[in-house]
C-alpha cells in the first residue's frame, strides 16, 4: 500500500503537472523501485503508465550491454530520444543493476562497455529539462551495488520499496489469481495466505498454477485444498519420489523427522508444526517436518534471541533423535544441512547481532550476497587472530547448546518419541494438529504444555 500511495503521486505529476509547477515544485526525474524478485515492480510500473494514460517504454538493462563497444550507449540515446518525442511518458528500465553497478568494481577488463552505457544513462538523465514530462522508473533487487552517481538528487530522486506482501496482501493476490480458476467453495484462501509467509506475488501465482496442473492431472473439475497442498510441497520441497521400501531406513528417517517435529512442538519459541512426513521428495529429501513461520516475525523482520535459539534446537532435533535412539556411533550424515543451518545462524548471532559473551560488536557484515569485484577484493578480517578464535569458540558453544537442548527434550520424552515414530511409520504423514493432540495426551493436559528454551541448557554467554 505504501508503494502504491507513493506511485499515485507519480501519476499526479504526469496528469496534472501544473498543480506542482505552479508553486515552484520540480517533478522528480527518476523513481527507483526496490524489492525482492517477484514482488510486482514491473507490474507497478505498467500500472502507473496505464493510470496516467501516457506512453510506456520498457527495456531490460541487460539489453543495453553488448559485445561491441558503443552499442549500449547508442541504445540509451535512441531510447531517450523516442521518449522525449512521446512526452509525457514513462521509461522503465528493469534490472538496472546490470548497467548501474558501481564503476571501477570489476576484477577483469570487460567492464568498459557497461561503464560507457552507465555514463550515457547519467548524461541523458541530466539532459532532461525540468518538468519535461519524461519520468524514468527503474527496478532492482540489489540497490546496494548501484553507483552512487545514479542515486543522487536530480537523478533517482525517490526510492520506493516494493516488499513481500503481508497476510492481507497475499490473500488479495490469491483471490485475483483464483478468479480465472475453478476453486472449490471449501477452499479457504485466507488460510492459505496464513500458510505462505515470505511468498512473493509471483510465488503465489505459481502456487495456484501448479495446483491447477495437479487438479487436471487428477482429472478433477475444481481445485481442492489437497491439490493446493500438493502444489505447495512441489514448489517448496520438490517432486514426490518413490516411497521407501527399506524398513530400517524408513525407521531411521522417521525418528529423525519426529525429532525435528517434537522439539518444535515442545519449545514455546519455535514455529508451529504444519506436518511431518517420511514420504521422500526429489533432490534427496527422504522426509521432512514443515513448520509454519510466525507471520508477525516474518513481516516485521524482528527475531528475538530466544527464537533464534529455538530455531537452532529444532534444526538439531534430527541429529538429537539419532543420538538418543541409536547412539553416538550410529548417527548419520542426514543432519548435514541442518548443521550448516545451525552454524550459519550461530555465526550471525555472534558476529552480527551481538548475542554472545563478546558483547554488542558487529564483527562481520552481511555475507549473504557478495558483490563480485568491489566486495570480493575487500574481504579481509577486521579483527585479530585471537578474536577470530574467540568468535569460533562462541559459534561452537551455541551449536553445542542447541544440540544439548534437543537431546534433553527428546531424552525426557523418549516414550512419546517412540510412539510418534511408530505412528509416522504406519501413516507416513501426520498433520500438525494430530501431532499436537498426541503430545497433549501424553502430557496429560487439555492445552499444549511447552517448555521454554530459556529453561534448558542452551543459554548463550
Automatic annotation (TrEMBL):
Family: Belongs to the AAA ATPase family. In the C-terminal section; belongs to the peptidase M41 family.
UniProt xrefs under InterPro entries: AAA+_ATPase, AAA_lid_3, ATPase_AAA_core, ATPase_AAA_CS, FtsH, P-loop_NTPase, Peptidase_M41, Peptidase_M41-like
Cofactor: Zn(2+)
Gene3D superfamilies: 1.10.8.60, P-loop containing nucleotide triphosphate hydrolases, Peptidase M41
Domain AAA+ ATPase: 27-166
Name listed for the protein in its UniProt record: ATP-dependent zinc metalloprotease FtsH
Keyword Oxidoreductase carried by entry: no
GO cellular component: plasma membrane-derived thylakoid membrane
Residues in the signal sequence: none
MF annotations from Gene Ontology: ATP binding; ATP hydrolysis activity; ATP-dependent peptidase activity; metal ion binding; metalloendopeptidase activity
Annotated membrane topology: Multi-pass membrane protein
Keywords: ATP-binding, Hydrolase, Membrane, Metal-binding, Metalloprotease, Nucleotide-binding, Protease, Thylakoid, Transmembrane, Transmembrane helix, Zinc
Subcellular location: Cellular thylakoid membrane
GO BP annotations, alphabetical order: proteolysis
